[in-house]
Amino acid sequence: MPEEEFLTVREVAEMLRLKPRRIYALAAKGALPCRRATGRLLFPKSELERWLAGAAASGSPGTALPPADILAGSHDPLLEWALRESGSGIASFFDGSLDGLVRFREGRAAAVGLHLLDVAAGEWNLPAVRRELAGRPVVVLHWAWREQGLLFRPELHGRIRSLGDIRGLTVVPRQPQSGAWHLFRHLLERAGLDPQRLDLLAEPARTESEVALAIASGKAEVGFGLRCLAAPFDLAFLPLIRERFDLALHRWAYFEPPWQRLWRFAAGPALHARAAELGGYEVRERGRVLYNERA
Prior knowledge:
CATH class of the largest domain: Alpha Beta
Shape: elongated
Largest sheet: 10 strands, mixed
Helix content: 25-40%
Number of helices: 11
Oligomer: single chain
Structural class: alpha/beta
């Protein structure tokens, strides 16, 4: 039998393009095949190669390796601005809170923007995180409180005074996997309105900005959206609910430079000034840890 070849922590880090401390963390979890000898970690090359082949074949290496610096989930204009202005280098893919949870679970995103209301529990976001990301290394950080309501064309200002007044108007829908659509359906049903009986556009808006754009361009008359987008698109706004927007983040990613750049920027005066300029935001508790699952 040929003698087994072993790799050091540094050699494995170079092979996987990770930092050495991530290799130590993976080894501690038992996620990487390794041996301990005279106080050192050694990795049998043949076993490591089989592990890599198995991860590639399963199509889900993210279950063991830290995910790429991608922010998925729900769209937030203030967060999108901060990603850019901070120079974080973090990529974004906004297609709804539920879509983001799936991407996180499959290792295709390092963080998820969430605004999911658990009606039975009367709680924002954490029930969904506990249910969908159980056993995964995730921390939930508060981002902002936001005002959600009806965005509509200015000439309808006298007509729309409550949610029931949208009957007969063309409404911008959201994609089914978005937190906004689930929240809007809840508010409609609470008001005695059937979402299926609304006059909805054929194509849903996939971000908050797309809701406002569809109304401003004349494609629709009203939509469920954020107060902060009313003024930029010259729209009227009727407040309906104050919601909590949080970020669920992979614990390993939190300490990486892209995310640290974002947190440092968000702690400074520029973000608070931008939130005040946009309106409809409360960011005093930004960064508060709401949940920490070590896995």
